[in-house]
Backbone:
């Protein structure tokens, strides 16, 4: 039983570009959340997807958007990249109404 | 908005010494969760506390939830080098996790 998987592992982009990160949830999980973790800080909630819709959103600009597919996998898109978007992007999955979230290994995004 | 404060920011101990990290909130928490993140890794769930005054143990780790449900602590007895990492407390708010800033534990062998 695979856990949460994310791709790619690392990514380097330049300012102004767009990026798409991908996440496959743990088997049996239908809810996917995305977090941004800057160096030396705790993860910050971006948004959560359930039943292919954005259910909750954190304090992030509209440049951050997402999608959830019928198989529960998810994408995070970031447009017009800024240097400050450089961070570890974590995906976490859970069963709806379950307490425990399982985090994936993350995608390290560097914006130059 | 809701937030949890965590202290200390760093703790450097000799192997075998004890370690404690503290988490505080200005509002009453419905629950508190603890995660561990190894260097270069991702957060791994350790435990969830729900009841006022609850104490849970996992081998050398002891987790406590305050009577007023506004604070929590994690205590590690006799640290080992495998305990190295950052320990985060977080509150589960409508399935959204709000993380503290974390306490980074370094252990000298």
Residues:
């Amino acid at each position: 039983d695979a856990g949460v998987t994310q791709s790619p592992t690392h990514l380097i982009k330049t300012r102004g570009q767009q990026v798409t990160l991908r996440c496959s949830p743990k088997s049996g999980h239908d809810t996917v959340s995305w977090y941004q973790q800057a160096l030396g800080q705790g993860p910050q909630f971006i948004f959560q997807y359930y039943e292919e819709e954005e259910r909750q959103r954190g304090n992030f600009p509209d440049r951050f958007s997402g999608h959830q597919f019928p198989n529960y996998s998810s994408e995070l898109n970031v447009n017009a990249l800024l240097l400050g978007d450089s961070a570890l992007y974590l995906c976490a999955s859970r069963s709806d109404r379950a307490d425990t979230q399982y985090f994936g290994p993350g995608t390290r995004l560097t914006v130059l | 908005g809701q937030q949890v404060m965590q202290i200390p920011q760093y703790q450097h101990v000799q192997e075998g010494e004890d370690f404690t990290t503290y988490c505080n909130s200005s509002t009453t928490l419905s629950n508190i969760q603890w995660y561990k993140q190894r260097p270069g890794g991702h957060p791994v769930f350790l435990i969830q506390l729900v009841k006022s005054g609850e104490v849970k143990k996992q081998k050398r780790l002891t987790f406590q939830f305050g009577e007023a449900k506004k604070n929590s602590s994690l205590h590690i007895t006799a640290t080992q080098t495998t305990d190295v990492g950052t320990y985060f407390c977080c509150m589960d708010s409508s399935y959204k996790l709000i993380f503290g800033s974390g306490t980074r534990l370094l252990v000298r062998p």
In short: The first strand of chain B starts at residue 4 and ends at 7. Chain B has no helices and eleven strands. The interface with chain A takes residues 1, 31, 33, 41-45, 48, 88, 90, 92, 94-102 of chain B (CB under 8 Å).
